[in-house]
Amino acid sequence: MTDRIAVIRGDGIGPEIMEATLHVLDVLKADLEYEFVEAGMSAYEKTGELLPQATLDTIARLRVALKSPLMTPIGGGFSSINVALRRHFDLYANVRPAISFPNTQARYSDLDLIVVRENTEGAYRSEGQTLSDDGEEAHGDICVTRKGSERIARYAYDMAKSTGRRKVTIVHKANIIKQASGLFLETARRVAAEYPEIETNELIVDNTCMQLVMKPEQFDVIVTTNLFGDILSDLCAGLVGGLGMAPGANIGQREAIFEAVHGSAPDIAGQGKANPCALMLGAAQMLDHLGKTNKAATLRRAIRETLEARDHLTPDLGGKGTTMSFAEAVARRC
């Protein structure tokens, strides 16, 4: 079955890693058709808008998008485009796998865990943020809802059940942030009780950071709130070689956006040095979402075999390959 997806080429290195990823998807014969849409600085230069309505309309119509990194201008009046996309489409689940691959800077050789982060509320809501007239005090609200907590916890347990994972760790700070984090913990516990076949444990967020560094193999699926999930998912990326190996999925009831979670790296844009693995792995998440699980498995295997063979690795991986030569090496194994 052919699926039509929206494609955002992105800024900086975005167009290069997207070209590489689409080349691999085409060789893989993933039965995809692409509608290219604009966002970020490239959109701003053409339309005066960072996130044009036409882009939002296309994503709403197709329901699935593959996105390269976007650059938000520095200065007042500009908010994060990623946050805007998540809010507009209510992409409440941010799913960040951390999987060890060979010949990367991974600290552990056999790590395989997933951070499921609530994506729309918590400390990242802009409502309620104030700065005193003298600039000496800043205040911000942390809004955690029972609805938001329940649906992210249920997503984590459903995902664990459907993918054969056996353990979910609920991460919180209810010992100090007793109301907001306490509501999340209480709600997640209620959801956990509906999944007796899945082992559940609870950890305070600071202890979780220490445990991830010392003994990460104890984790399988982590579910947590927005701010904690943002921090923990980057920590986990560091354990498996950095953000160059870190994909992400943003999932809502209708729409889903898949991405590389690293930045646009304008300092190396156009030089063919960028590692496309994160976006390729994000594309594998997208293929799973579309029910093309065999294609997703083939893509991940091809990436692993290319890394094992040290075939055209990009400079960040210790090789002399280019973005596209690495992609061609992956494509030969698909």
TrEMBL record:
Keywords: Oxidoreductase. Residues 4-330 form the Isopropylmalate dehydrogenase-like domain. GO terms for biological process: isocitrate metabolic process; tricarboxylic acid cycle. Gene3D superfamilies: Isopropylmalate Dehydrogenase. It comes from the Bacteria. GO terms for molecular function: isocitrate dehydrogenase (NAD+) activity; magnesium ion binding; NAD binding. Pfam families: Iso_dh. Belongs to the isocitrate and isopropylmalate dehydrogenases family. This is Isocitrate/isopropylmalate dehydrogenase. It comes from Zymobacter palmae.
